[in-house]
What does this fold into?
Amino acid sequence: MTKAGLVDQVAMQTGLPKKQAEVVVSTVFESIVDSLKAGDKIELRGFGSFRIRQRDSRTGRNPKTGEAVEVPAKRIPYFKPGKDLREQLNPDR
It folds into this structure.
């Protein structure tokens, strides 16, 4: 599903015009990004949680030349699905 598809679903289920549904979806995404930038954890009960993980710097290799390349430390977003979501995706477990 794309962002446009999500906007269509929100508009259809809430009865909002697409323009307002797009504002709602964009606001939710922006709030998640802003919280992660601030170092906060986002927890959506029944769905999952978003966190930032710190990756240390390391020495990598350029696959074309085989030359060693220093890869800097970075922060990456991480999503952990919640129990309810996992159970819905795997009902036979």
